Fold this protein.
Amino acid sequence: MRHSVGALCEPGVLPFLWFRGDQDGSPLLPRALRTYELATGGKHRFNEFYIYNAFLSLYRNYTSERFEKKSVELLSFMQHYDIPTRLLDWTESAVFGLYFAVEKSCQRPSVA
């Protein structure tokens, strides 16, 4: 392990770093696998099977995109629309990671 880390620091070797834009310190788990505390004191976990099948049956009404069942493209499409999946967001760009880390804290409050 030490040899591998040392190789990353050699001149001319670009390290392969991944960044996450996580602003709330959530665990390094995909949203579909996380457990959430409820206001009532209980715990909640998404029903991944139900969410996936509901999306499969309805998404064709809203887009012309077509996907193979259980494809990475389908899961990416779902995640783009903030649907909990087993995918974990990451980027090779520190700038994109920083943007997503501060995005919500920079939003203006809505005026009603």
